[in-house]
Amino acid sequence: MFTALFPVLHANLKVSLWPPLTLEGTLKIEVFLFLLAVTRTIGMECLQLKEPIIVVLLHPGTVDTDLSKPFSRNVDPGKLFTPSASVEKLLRVIDSLKPEDSAKFFNYEKFELPW
User: Fold this and answer.
1) For residue 67, what pLDDT is reported?
2) Do 40 and 15 touch, CB atoms closer than 8 A?
3) Domain residues for 72?
4) pLDDT band at 69 (very low <50, low <70, confident <90, very high)
5) How many distinct structural domains can be found in the chain?
């Protein structure tokens, strides 16, 4: 998928996705930028074509997992979510989405985050 979409996405990006994506232990910023670009590009395309598809990127907050262990001591206990609590919050956001929300980036409270 990346190989097929890269030329189209790269033409519309103001950031570079080169060097190629690599995953060495943790999720690299290049992957995050790619996901943002894919979400925004596909979401905008669906809006322009008036397709009944809503495409968004969701930030689950800080979830109490092995991945967040290095950061969890700096997180307010009320903002460190169990996996199930995070999923519940994201499902509420998903249930509230409207077509005009397409191509946006939201957190677990449906606060729109900057690209």
Assistant:
1) 82
2) no
3) 2-107
4) confident
5) 1
